[in-house]
Specification:
Layout lengths: L4 E6 L3 E8 L2 E9 H10 L4 E5 L4 H10 L3 E5 L1 H7 L6 H12 L12 H33 L10 H11 L7 H33 L2 H6 L7 H11 L10 H8 L3 E3 L8 E4 L6 H18 L7 H13 L1 H22 L9
Parallel strand pairs: 1-4, 4-5
Antiparallel strand pairs: 1-2, 2-3, 6-7
Helix pairs in contact: 3-4, 5-7, 5-9, 7-9, 10-13, 11-13, 12-13
Length: 343
């Protein structure tokens, strides 16, 4: 049995490798990327622990394919364990020390497919933020000239065209050229977002897990991908129960228990993935709104309508998002399709 643990501190250009065996540090050396790749190939199968950061998923996949047992550990935990000043050697040693803590929870890595899906979501999110920022800037700049955007004059597009074509509004030629340029940039970003949406739809059709998740109430293409990324695939599952996933996303009450007394509070504001929770609750709220004034056709819709009557739409939306996450976990774990129960 190989009792060697290797702590690896990843950086952009250099990689620090700390080898721990037989209760002592064998080596703690710095390598470049090419040398580390060769070292991994020549090394006998060992337990390698990477600090979860950029490129850690790639190196986990690489080391796993070479027969090593690989874990990713939280950078926050490593920072707590490190005893001396921060440098690469102390970081690599702290990774080894943190990996030997009792009941330590390692971070699940992502497959190549999950990395590519995540990249699609990140690229689209950036385009949406840029589009929103430019739109708000155009409105603010026009408002400085007392030019207000309203639906009466054709919205933002109509207002821009009016500014460019009106020769008597006092706007200089250079100002018109600048407004025209920024407006074209905004239109290009709108087209980019539309193209990203089509790419995401094609990606979902090629992902069996996402195709099943999109059948859930209030789950669209983006929520399906984000749920798949949060839960993981069935052969690399870290969470043991669906409620653990809900707690990680922040859809369950915070527990304040002491002395054998259990006390549950509100859902926490400080969570790792606030965007995912926000998108899940928003999707759930859209579905809750759509069935509020309709007759319930399924058991879930009946449950939701009763909850709306007792607690209101907002509480029902959070409850539906919580149930959605647990159902998604069960579907991925058991490799099953989503089935509704008619009334």
């Amino acid at each position: 049995m190989n009792n060697t643990t290797i702590g690896v501190d990843l950086a952009k250009d250099v990689i620090q490798v700390c080898v721990f065996s037989q209760q002592k540090i064998i080596s703690n050396t710095e390598m470049n990327v090419a040398d580390f790749a060769i070292w991994l190939t020549q090394r006998k199968p060992s337990t390698i622990v990477f600090e979860a950061c950029g490129t850690s998923n790639y190196w986990k996949q690489k080391a796993t394919s070479l027969g090593h047992t690989v874990h990713l550990i939280s950078a926050k935990l490593v920072n707590v364990v490190r005893q001396q000043q921060k440098n690469d050697k102390n970081d690599a040693l702290a990774i080894v020390q943190a990996s030997h803590l009792p009941n330590v929870k390692f971070i699940k890595g992502k497959t190549l497919e999950q990395q590519q899906l995540q990249s699609l979501i990140r690229i689209r999110d950036l385009a949406v933020k840029q589009k929103t920022a430019i739109k708000n800037q155009i409105k603010a700049l026009l408002l400085e000239l007392n030019i207000r955007v309203s639906t009466k004059n054709g919205g933002l597009n109509g207002t821009i065209q009016l500014v460019l074509e009106d020769a008597e509004n006092g706007c200089a030629m250079y100002f018109r050229q600048a407004i025209s340029t920024v407006w074209k940039t905004y239109l290009q970003l709108c087209q980019s977002v539309s193209k990203y949406d089509k790419v995401i739809e094609r990606a979902i059709r090629k992902s069996p897990e996402c195709k099943r998740l999109i059948q859930l109430e209030g789950v669209g293409p983006i929520n399906a991908i984000n749920l798949y990324l949060a839960i993981g695939c069935s052969d690399s599952m870290v969470f043991k129960q669906g409620k653990d996933v809900s707690a990680c996303i922040g859809l369950t009450p915070v527990q304040h228990s002491s002395g054998g007394k259990t006390k549950l509070g509100k859902i926490s504001k400080n969570i790792r993935n606030q965007m995912l929770r926000s998108q899940l609750v928003t999707g759930a709220f859209t579905f809750v709104n759509s069935i509020a004034k309709k007759e319930a056709k399924t058991e879930k819709e009946r449950w939701l309508k009763n909850l709306i009557d007792r607690k209101g739409k907002k509480c029902a939306s959070v409850a539906l998002a919580n149930k959605t996450v647990r159902t998604a976990f069960s579907m991925i774990t058991k490799n099953t399709e989503y089935k509704v129960t008619p009334v």
